[in-house]
Write a structure and sequence with these properties.
Elements (H helix, E strand, L loop, with lengths): L6 H10 L11 H11 L3 E7 L2 E8 L5 E7 L19 E3 L2 E3 L3 H21 L6 E7 L10 H10 L6 E4 L11 E3 L1 E2 L1 E10 L3 E2 L9 H14 L13 E9 L6 E2 L2 E10 L5 H14 L4 E9 L2 E2 L4 H14 L4 E3 L7 H4 L4
Parallel strand pairs: 3-6, 3-7, 8-17
Antiparallel strand pairs: 1-2, 2-6, 4-5, 9-16, 10-14, 10-15, 11-13, 12-14
């Protein structure tokens, strides 16, 4: 440990140095488990499929406050294009560089060292502290937090509050807290036509031409106006796949992949119904598959939010902003339990 580096930075560097590309944990959880076990946490390792998870708890009374996070990181892409090697953590001008420094090994390190300091001062603290850690957040997210939460619920173990360590700051640390997230509803639309030669369009049915007016309507529809906590629901097309690759063939079908990020002003059932009404009005021949990956949730002002805001003010000297914008997180699996 460098004399100039804090315990948090040293632990973060240790975690970053481990090549934990999803779903591989690469030993990160064992590093955390060793530190937490030394503090008196009871450790429960939970492996589902190829995914490592653990639940650690100190105390057996309420309230139960949990830290949640993930040890996996996204792939690096061409490593030669990195300014610093992604798994060789480096510090320059007060900034820590490496894959996962922000998302979210820095947070994991801060959580662990914060507990070490807190327990050293309050060894007989009231209530319980827990950690819910997975290596399946950046991937499919089917064998991670969602399954750990299901197991906790099955035995009646309920969290009273939870801090998810995802990066939410914009310009300086602590300037934004995400106290909610929009829901995420995806769809895969396949519009069916009749393949043919471009020289004989009367013998074919072009599904790209057929779906275009419907997409124009979907992309300009006002789904809701949002509210004081959430921006308006957004519809975005992410992929359009059609054609044979030949310039003289009318395709037989086209696939459109889209996503809603939706507010609490509407439900996924309402969105599905409205989309299908639009498609039917355009007389499309189609199949449509839906994927609901997260409900919207909001943590209103109260003890947990107030404590987080106060902590930012005390440590950073700034007033934080509460926001629900941006992407989703594993908080979507935890919020419904409380």
């Amino acid at each position: 440990m460098s004399h100039n580096e804090s315990a948090t930075v040293c632990l973060a560097k240790d975690l970053i140095s481990r090549r934990s590309v999803t779903p591989d944990d690469a030993g990160c959880q064992e590093v955390m488990i060793t530190r937490l076990a030394a503090l008196g946490f009871t450790i429960e390792r939970l492996r589902f499929g190829e995914v490592d998870n653990f639940w650690a708890r100190r105390g057996d009374s309420g309230p139960l406050y949990a830290f949640a996070g993930h040890t996996d990181v996204v792939p690096t892409g061409p490593e030669e294009q990195w300014r610093f090697p992604p798994f060789d953590p480096s510090i320059e001008d007060g900034m820590l560089y490496g894959r996962g420094a922000a998302d979210m090994k820095g947070s994991l390190a801060a959580m662990v060292t914060a507990c070490e300091r807190f327990i050293a001062k309050h060894p007989d603290h009231r209530g319980s502290i827990a950690f819910l850690i997975t290596s399946d957040e950046e991937g499919p997210a089917v064998d991670g937090t969602v399954k750990v939460v299901a197991q906790l619920e099955a035995r009646g173990e309920k969290m009273d509050g939870c801090l998810v360590g995802e990066p939410s700051s914009t310009k300086v640390v602590g300037d934004m807290i995400k106290n909610g997230r929009r829901g995420s509803l995806g769809g895969t639309l396949t519009v069916h036509g009749v393949q043919g030669h471009v020289a004989y369009p009367h013998l074919a049915e072009n599904p790209i031409h057929a779906v275009a007016p419907a997409l124009a309507e979907l992309s300009t529809t006002e789904w809701d106006n949002g509210n004081d906590f959430f921006p308006a629901t957004s519809f975005q097309v992410s992929n359009v796949n059609g054609g044979t690759g030949a310039s003289n063939v009318i395709p037989g079908e086209v696939e459109v992949v889209f996503n809603f990020r939706y507010s609490t002003e509407t439900t996924h059932e309402e969105l599905q119904q409205r989309v299908e009404e639009i498609l039917n009005r355009h007389n499309l021949k189609y199949t449509l598959e839906w994927n609901l990956s997260g409900y919207p949730f909001l943590t209103p002002s109260g003890a947990l939010v107030d404590a987080a805001c106060t902590a930012v003010k005390t440590v950073q000297g700034i007033d934080t902003e509460l926001s629900t914008a941006g992407g989703t997180s594993d908080g979507r699996f935890i919020a419904p339990t409380g």
